[in-house]
Amino acid sequence: MASVNDYIAVLGKNNSLYLGHIGDEYLSAYTIDTGVKYGPIMADLNRDDVYETIVTTDSEIFIYQPDGTFEKVYLPDVSVGGPAAADIDSDGYPELIQCTKTCIYALKHGGIPVAGFPFYLPPGDSSEYITSPPVIADLNNDGTPDIAFATSNMRLVSFTPSGSLTPGFPITLSGTVVRPPAVFKRARPDSIAIACITTDGMIAVCDLETVIDDDLYVWPMWKGGPELNSALLNSKIASKVQTTAPFEAFCYPNPITGETGTFRITPSGATDCTITVYTADGLKVFERYIPEHDIIPGLPREEKMDVSRLASGLYIAKIMTRQKTVYYKLGVLK
C-alpha cells in the first residue's frame, strides 16, 4: 500500500490496482494484466500537487493518475523489484529510479529518461547482475543522493548522480541480497550505516563513517522510510523547483527506422510549442501543437510522430517555442 494524506493505493492479488481515499465506500479498481507486479509507490512527478501512483511489472512501469488514466514505460530488461523515488538531478522534481537485471534507470515525468542514465554495472564480470531494488541517500556527505543496490557477486554497489561509483563502494557482502538495503543513523550523532539481510538470514552492517543532512535520507529503505507509506512527499524534496533550463530540441532515433519517431523538447521558459515537419520540397506532412498548460518550463517533454505513411528520405522539422525556433534535419529509413 502507498498513501499520501488520505489518498491511498493498494495492489491486490487479483491483478488490480485500487485507488481512492480513506472513507470512500469503495476504491476504484484498475486491472493490470501483465506479469509480476511491484509497488505501488507515490510521487508528484510534475509538482502539480496531484500524486501519481507507480507500479512496476516484469518489463513495464505504469504511472497512474487518480482518475485511473495511465501511461506505460517499457523496460528493455527484466525489472528487479519496485521503483524508488528521488530528486536525483536536483531540479526540484522527483524521478523514478528502477533497477533491472543489468542497469539502473531514472525517469522523469512522462517517462522521459534523465540525462546520463541508464547506469551499468562496473566492468569486470559480465555475468554479474543486480539482485535488489535501490535505496537512495547521500552516502558520502557530498550533498547529493547516491543510488545503492546489491548484486549477484555478493556486493553492494552505489552510484553518484553523475554515474561514477560512490567513494567507499563496492562493499563486499557475506551472502546474496534480494531485498532493498537500509540506510540509518548509528548511536553516534548523525553517523550513518548501511545494512542488508542475506537470503540465509544474516544481517550485514557497514559503518559509512560520515554524517549527512536529514533532507538527504531520500528513500533510505523499503517503502521509502520508517513511515512505510511508499511515497515521496513534495515537502521532502530539498531542491527548489527548476523553472528554466537550456533550450534543447531533437528527434530520436535519427534516422527513424521504425514506425514512430519521438521529439524531445526542453523549453527554456513558459511557452507553447508547435512542431511541423516538411518534406525536402516543402510539403507539410506532420504538425502538432502543444498548449502552454501542457508544458512544464525547464522540463523535457516528448511527442511521438507516426511515420508509417512517410517515404524514406530527408525531412525538415520546425520546432517553434516562444523563446526560440529551430530547424532540424531528420531522416526516415525503411
Give the tally of structural domains. Answer: 2
Q: In CATH terms, what is the architecture of the largest domain?
A: 7 Propeller
**Mean pLDDT rating:** 93
Q: Within the largest sheet, what's the order of strands?
A: 8-7-6-5-20
Low-confidence spans: none
**Number of distinct beta strands:** 27
Proportion of residues in helical segments: under 10%
- Strand proportion, as a percent range, falls in 35-45%
* N-end to C-end Cα span: 46 Å
Largest sheet: 5 strands, mixed
By CATH's scheme, which homologous superfamily of the largest domain applies?
YVTN repeat-like/Quinoprotein amine dehydrogenase
The ordered string of helix (H) and strand (E) elements is: EEEEEEEEEEEEEEEEEEEEEEEEEEE
Q: Describe the global form.
A: globular
Roughly how many Å is the radius of gyration? 21 Å
Can you summarize this structure?
The protein has strands at 2-4, 7-11, 16-21, 28-31, 38-43, 52-56, 60-64, 70-74, 84-86, 95-99, 103-107, 119-120, 135-137, 146-151, 155-159, 171-172, 182-185, 191-197, 203-211, 231-232, 248-252, 260-266, 273-279, 284-290, 301-306, 313-321, 325-332. The chain is an all-beta fold and 334 residues long.
